[in-house]
Task: structure prediction
Amino acid sequence: MPALIAQESQLAVTHGPYLQELTADGVTILWTTSSPCVGRAEYGTDELSQVAQAVRHGLVNANTTHHAVRITGLKPGQKYQYRLVNTEIAKFGAYDTALGKTDKSDTYSFTTLNPAPAEFTFVVTQDIHSQAEKYASLLDKVNVEDADFVVLNGDIDNDPKEESQIYSGHLDISVQRFAKEKPFLLVTGNHETRGAFARKLFDVYPHTSGRQYYSFVHGGVYFMVLASGEDKPDDHPVYAGLNTFDDYRREQAAWIAQELQSNAAKSAHYRIVFTHIPAYINFRESESRVSEGYTVSQLSKIWSPLFRNGNVDLVISGHNHRHSWNPHGSDIGDYALLIGSNQEIETIKITEKAIEIDVQSLVGESKNYLVPRQMK
Result:
């Protein structure tokens, strides 16, 4: 009997919590537990007097180890506290259901986004390829505590084969460093589209739009997140006919054109775009590869003109594993393009007069750039 008791699992949070899709009026909190249970979040400004839980088709999400709760109806720029409450299910029959022990987490906090113009910073890195130690070392180079959010700009997961790879590769470190109280945005890169777990990634990085591309406004900045897809043609034999990214990029092009004409985009002080594969590359400065050339060529034709016509100020990309800076007015045209290498992390500071970019590398090198505000 003592041996059996010793083997009994204790209900606990195994991964998370971490924040996704933080907006001016809501946030999604995700976590996993050691055994199936019912999970909810208690939250509030002063007291944890409100409760949020996942409900679908009239049924509360129960008897699961994966939990995702969306909190809505929040106020812009407001600080909230929250904690997780997980309750075991002792019995789960048709008319014989009973709840068991309850486990409550520590209390954490987050602050909702605020569309009003303000000075703030955010952090960007790219091309981690599930290398957890590299990711941790890059985070050591920046002051993530002062950032409002972190952007993981593609190829963070390396051909994900199973869920555990996501946690060990970067998510657990994100939780340890910041993600309990600050959100991260996962911009899908070409390596996020590969592997047996690729089609389940949206469950780990959900968005209420149901898409991997979307926009949001914070601090007077209009942000656009895009999904550039694979780097080779859809009919390449390695994909076995299971990719349709040409159509996906054209679908986004129609959306981009409409979005950049919206009042939210036009009235913003700045317009910033995240796309893992850049819509432009200066082949005179770096060797080209066939894999780079295909998608970059398509995006330069169907996305880049939209960025110019929509008065985009800055596009931030990765993918090339080489640093590149193309300022406004250079070969690229009417927007600045920063391509971060696989050894760098960037801190972006928004001020009234300019976007200030600080690039730090693992070997201690730093670069600084400025994108002046387009006064109209």
